[in-house]
Amino acid sequence: MMIVPAGVKVHLALGYTDMRKGIDGLATLVQETLKKDPFSGHLFAFRGKKASMLKILFWDGNGLCLFTKRIDQGGLVWPRMTGFEGSITLSPAQLAMLIEGIDWRAPERVWKPALGLKKRKKPALNIAKLLLRIGMFE
After folding, report:
1. Domain total for the chain?
2. Residue 117 covered by a domain
């Protein structure tokens, strides 16, 4: 899991990227294709053609870092926008879901909160009837 500091944006590059690219190749891609500054401290996410590999490039204040993850089963959910080059911005929560292979566009909540308080059912027998049944009162 990656912790994204406050104020840091996550840019998701549209389309797919040649995953043979390393730090320098991806930094050039950020500058030339995305028209962003790779040294800004923001995160830049790229995916491979088969949607099984993810690379995230970021500047940590000391140097460029490259996070890489390969998903063994399933694939990464990536937006499809034909004829458009660039990036979209994700929230840190969406990035966490993307890294785990979860569909970040419409995550499904497993637990659903109750909408209101349920009315309590009245007891089947009141105390007087119960005491009559046991034989305490006649």
Report:
1. 1
2. no
